[in-house]
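User: Hi! I have a protein structure encoded as tokens and I'd like to know what sequence might fold into it. I'm fairly new to this, so please keep things simple.
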């Protein structure tokens, strides 16, 4: 297999429209969920990233978590498969998202973190290197936090027993 085919994210732009294939990890601990803020933006996301060509969403999530947090995760099970249509930065976005329940069995110290912590990445956003800021957010205070996508944060208190397929159109 050509190595180039495994290093290109499955995302592309057509005019003012953007398609993104994303995978995310939902890590829960002691009434909290792990979230990340990516500079220069001022909102929180679930950790993860883009799936690359010839890569499964689960393998992509394991890779992204290792790149971002510098530790491995264990993917427990899929929670949601989401077809999401929304607007962001003057673009209409069509995002296919896989959300998995994850944990960190080989690094229990991550669960003890009480404050925000940051990781610097060379990958650039708007010509600037990005900083990833991680934080455990209390589930009982999420209504006052800009955690995206919002339709997932409302589902965290009662995780589904089986994988749910959601179609969200907020564009």
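Assistant: Happy to help. Inverse folding works backwards from shape to sequence: for each of the 171 positions I chose a residue that suits the local structure. Here it is:
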């Amino acid at each position: 297999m050509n190595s180039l085919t495994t290093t290109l994210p499955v995302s592309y732009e057509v005019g003012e429209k953007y398609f993104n294939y994303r995978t995310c990890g939902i890590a829960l601990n002691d009434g909290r969920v792990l979230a990340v803020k990516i500079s220069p933006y001022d909102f929180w996301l679930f950790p993860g990233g883009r799936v690359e060509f010839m890569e499964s969403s689960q393998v992509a999530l394991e890779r992204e978590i290792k790149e971002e947090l510098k530790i491995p995760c264990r993917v427990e099970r899929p929670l949601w498969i989401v077809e999401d249509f929304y607007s962001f930065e003057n673009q209409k976005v069509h995002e296919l998202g896989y959300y998995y329940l994850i944990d960190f069995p080989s690094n229990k110290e991550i669960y003890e973190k009480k404050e925000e912590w940051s990781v610097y990445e060379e990958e650039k956003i708007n010509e600037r290197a990005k900083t990833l800021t991680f934080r455990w957010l209390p589930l009982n205070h999420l209504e006052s936090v800009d955690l995206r996508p919002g339709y997932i944060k409302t589902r965290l208190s009662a995780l589904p027993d089986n994988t749910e397929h959601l179609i969200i159109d907020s564009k």
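A useful reference point when you look it over: Residues 104 and 120 are 21 Å apart (CA to CA). Feel free to ask if any position seems puzzling.
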